[in-house]
Amino acid sequence: GETQTSTLIENVHTNLRVEASPAANEAGSTGGLVGLNRGAIKTSSSSGRVTVQANGNADKSMNLGGLVGLDEISGDSIGIFNSYSTAVVVASSEDSSLLTAKCGGLVGYVNIGRTIQNSYAAGSVNCPQATAAVGGFVGFINTGDGTSLPSFANNFTTATTTGTNTAAMGGFYGQISNDNDLDLSSNAIDA
Predict the structure, then answer these.
(1) 0.85 surpassed by pTM
(2) What is the largest CA-CA distance in the chain?
(3) What would the pLDDT profile of 95-115 be if each residue is shown by its tens digit?
């Protein structure tokens, strides 16, 4: 699903098997609670399994997270607070070169201006594609030109990560667009 800037999700807990099969040349976002989030998520959680199975012979781009697939630009400093995911996150494809995946234990892709605080991921992330960005907490962080950095405070992850793109794989995040002095010092990895 997709939320708007006015959306507030609070005290919602899911235990689901979420499966997505994108069509040819289709981009999308899949999460255990929300696929694309523009609003605020508070004291919520997800468990279960989040899976993308890309078939066929056309390129696909997917954001895949235990809680949220894509935490999107909204114009406000809102995002995810006091929430967690223990979901298993898996991206697979018949031809791994045709799926570009951003996979995270909590969020697949975090865009500029978003805030994530007091949250954690404790599941596992398995995205073996050659171009995948794989992180125990977040797969990909977009910092833009540095004028509206996303904010991460007091988060942690114990999620395990599996992938083949070692240049974009990490315990907390997989890949960041530009460093731009993004402060991650109050966040922790305990894998």
Answers:
(1) yes
(2) 42
(3) 666 678 899 999 999 999 999
